[in-house]
């Protein structure tokens, strides 16, 4: 069994913000397969499905970003998942808009959702799919930027990148993570 965790903030106010790309990638997987998040457990919305013979849990924590690990940890405990069976999807200011980067470990890079996951899991050794949102072109606070929506001009790049990220996650369900990294980190 594997688990894909999309980080974001719950509520309509945050729905299409840059900070919610983790939710959006999970939403793309749900849409592709005609699924819905049909359970509310572990402080999150989730579903358990099968893709290509692999059982997968899709999770969107409802704890708000900074407490995401409080949803992930009890889910992993309940299903006896190991950190290498989990991929966390989140926004990254340090990658250009639309670029995705897969990693097997690392620090939080200032991302409070990832920080919470590291604290709750007690390890940095879990898979990540970082989704580039770039940095603001004009002086603005990081909070205002990540909680803002994507510009109209960026919509095509954004949609293609959501598709690309979902493709990478589907590939991970069939192949080892390092192989997927080699293919999608180009």
From TrEMBL:
Site entry: Stabilizes the basic form of H active site to accept a proton: 91
PROSITE patterns: PEPT_TRNA_HYDROL_1, PEPT_TRNA_HYDROL_2
Binding site for tRNA: 14, 64, 66, 112
Entries under InterPro entries matching the protein: Pept_tRNA_hydro, Pept_tRNA_hydro_CS, Pept_tRNA_hydro_sf
A cellular component annotation (GO) from this entry: cytoplasm
Pfam families for the chain: Pept_tRNA_hydro (PF01195)
GO BP, sorted A to Z: protein quality control for misfolded or incompletely synthesized proteins; rescue of stalled ribosome
Subunit structure: Monomer.
PANTHER family with a match to the protein in the record: PEPTIDYL-TRNA HYDROLASE (PTHR17224:SF1)
Name of the protein described by the UniProt record: Peptidyl-tRNA hydrolase
Natural source organism: Gracilibacillus orientalis
């Amino acid at each position: 069994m594997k688990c894909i965790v999309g980080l974001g903030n719950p509520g309509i106010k945050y729905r299409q913000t840059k900070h919610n790309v983790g939710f959006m990638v999970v939403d793309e997987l749900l849409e592709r397969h005609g699924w819905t998040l049909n359970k509310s457990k572990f402080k999150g919305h989730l579903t358990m499905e099968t893709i290509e013979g692999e059982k997968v849990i899709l999770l969107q924590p409802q704890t708000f970003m900074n407490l995401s690990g409080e949803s992930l940890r009890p889910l992993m405990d309940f299903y006896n998942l190991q950190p290498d069976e989990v991929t966390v999807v989140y926004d990254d200011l340090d990658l250009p808009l639309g670029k995705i980067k897969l990693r097997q470990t690392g620090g939080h890079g200032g991302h409070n959702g990832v920080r919470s996951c590291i604290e709750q899991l007690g390890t940095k050794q879990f898979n990540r799919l970082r989704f580039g949102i770039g940095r603001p072109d004009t002086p603005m606070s990081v909070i205002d930027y990540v909680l803002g929506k994507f510009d109209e001009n960026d919509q095509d790049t954004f949609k293609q990148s959501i598709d690309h990220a979902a493709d990478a996650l589907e590939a991970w369900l069939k192949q080892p993570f390092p192989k997927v990294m080699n293919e999608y980190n180009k």
